[in-house]
Write a structure and sequence with these properties.
InterPro entries: Pyridox_Oxase_Alr4036_FMN-bd, Split_barrel_FMN-bd. This is Pyridoxamine 5'-phosphate oxidase family protein. This protein is α+β, with helices and mostly antiparallel strands. About 20% of the residues lie in helices and about 40% in strands. It has four helices and eleven strands, in the order ββαββββαββααβββ. It has helices at about 20-35, 80-85, 115-125, 160-165; strands at about 10, 15, 40-50, 55-60, 65, 70-75, 90-95, 100-115, 170-185, 195-200, 205-210. The longest helix is centred in the first third of the chain and has 17 residues, at about 20-35. It is elongated. The protein starts with 8 loop residues before the first strand and ends with a strand.
Length: about 210
């Protein structure tokens, strides 16, 4: 049965009903995790800090499990975001691609994986160069009297070896974000369109069109 214009939105000449739009949203998030130049490759992560206010930062979308409705990113477990999530595991993820004119907001519960099978596998898949972010001698955001890399200056020109970087694996954490809500916003000069989706135990429970 063809999609009714009243119950769908058109993106790039293709109509999408609610079910098709949800599938499209997850496809876009998956593409962002595997394509480095995709607009959904990075996301703004929001946590609740010690002052009970929002704390924001940009992280890389490392993996998306469409079946289990989970989004993954990597972080230093000495960072403030880990401290926030240990106190309150609610997390928000904001994706936006200006070229696609699509914004996706995800609300989730975060689980921290350190020194377990998941984090060990992800660490092994990470290049020594990419591990520099976890090789700082002091925790992220530690006050410094001068501009600093945080790690040994020699690594500004030399790549660390596997052995050298493995010494810092204990700082590496994978954050698994189990999604319970997703908002899809399509921006268009003829009028914006929005839809909301709600999940429980990775299963879609409700969805509806919304005023943008």
């Amino acid at each position: 049965m063809p999609t009714s214009p009243q119950d769908s939105i058109t993106i790039n000449d293709t109509p999408y009903n609610l079910q098709e739009l949800e599938t499209l949203a997850w496809k876009k998030l998956v593409n962002g995790s595997v394509k480095k130049k995709n607009g959904f490759r990075t996301m703004c992560v929001g946590t609740i800090n010690e002052n009970n206010t929002a704390a924001l930062r940009i992280v890389v979308n490392r993996k998306v499990d469409e079946v289990n409705k989970t989004v993954y990113f990597h972080t230093d477990n000495r960072s403030r975001k880990c401290y926030d999530l240990q106190k309150d595991n609610r997390i928000s993820l904001l994706f936006y691609d200006a070229r696609q004119r699509v914004q996706i907001v995800v609300k989730a519960h975060a689980a921290l994986h350190t020194n377990d099978a998941l984090s060990n596998d992800r660490w092994k898949a990470t290049s020594p160069q990419a591990r520099l972010g976890y090789m700082t001698l002091e925790p992220p955001n530690t006050k410094s009297n001068h501009p600093t890399l945080g790690y040994e200056e020699r690594f500004s020109t030399l790549k660390p070896t596997d052995i050298e970087s493995d010494l810092f694996q204990e700082n590496f954490t994978v954050v698994a974000c189990a999604v319970y809500e997703l908002e899809f916003l399509y921006l268009d000069f003829t009028g914006n369109r929005k839809a909301n989706f709600f999940y429980e135990n990775s299963v879609l429970q409700d969805s509806f069109w919304a005023v943008p």
